[in-house]
């Protein structure tokens, strides 16, 4: 060994860094390699477990989404059915109301006809009664001149009975 090549500080940075890095990497790989391998294995296992859990959650979410779609479809079908039934019920009610109105109108017409008929009968009776009263009055006047009171009463009663029979 010469005096120039002794142990000491090397001033060439590139040579010393490469050697130092090679030594550090060798020591790290030798001593720390197993620890790093085990950490990496644990990390890999943790990542795989997280991926499996995420996949399981995704599957559950897809199942929940499918169930929600099925429930939504059922609800939509029920809404459509209820709407259809409601329309049918409304049409049925309208038909029943029209029938009821028709019946009511028919009853009103019949009532109107019967009322008119009874009013006509009443007026006819009143007219007949006035005619009878007038006729009796004339008869009474004629009888007063020619008949006695007893004969007159008997004729009046007889006439009234005959008119009542009509």
TrEMBL record:
Keywords for this protein: ATP synthesis, CF(0), Chloroplast, Coiled coil, Hydrogen ion transport, Ion transport, Membrane, Plastid, Thylakoid, Transmembrane, Transmembrane helix, Transport
Membrane topology: Single-pass membrane protein
Domain of life (superkingdom): Eukaryota
InterPro entries noted in UniProt: ATP_synth_b/b'su_bac/chlpt
A Pfam family assignment: ATP-synt_B
GO terms for MF: proton-transporting ATP synthase activity, rotational mechanism
Transmembrane parts of this sequence: 18-36
Additional notes on this entry: In plastids the F-type ATPase is also known as CF(1)CF(0).
Role noted for this protein: Component of the F(0) channel, it forms part of the peripheral stalk, linking F(1) to F(0). F(1)F(0) ATP synthase produces ATP from ADP in the presence of a proton or sodium gradient. F-type ATPases consist of two structural domains, F(1) containing the extramembraneous catalytic core and F(0) containing the membrane proton channel, linked together by a central stalk and a peripheral stalk. During catalysis, ATP synthesis in the catalytic domain of F(1) is coupled via a rotary mechanism of the central stalk subunits to proton translocation.
Subunit description: F-type ATPases have 2 components, F(1) - the catalytic core - and F(0) - the membrane proton channel. F(1) has five subunits: alpha(3), beta(3), gamma(1), delta(1), epsilon(1). F(0) has four main subunits: a(1), b(1), b'(1) and c(10-14). The alpha and beta chains form an alternating ring which encloses part of the gamma chain. F(1) is attached to F(0) by a central stalk formed by the gamma and epsilon chains, while a peripheral stalk is formed by the delta, b and b' chains.
Entry's family note: Belongs to the ATPase B chain family.
Name of the protein in its database record: ATP synthase subunit b, chloroplastic
Organism annotation: Tydemania expeditionis
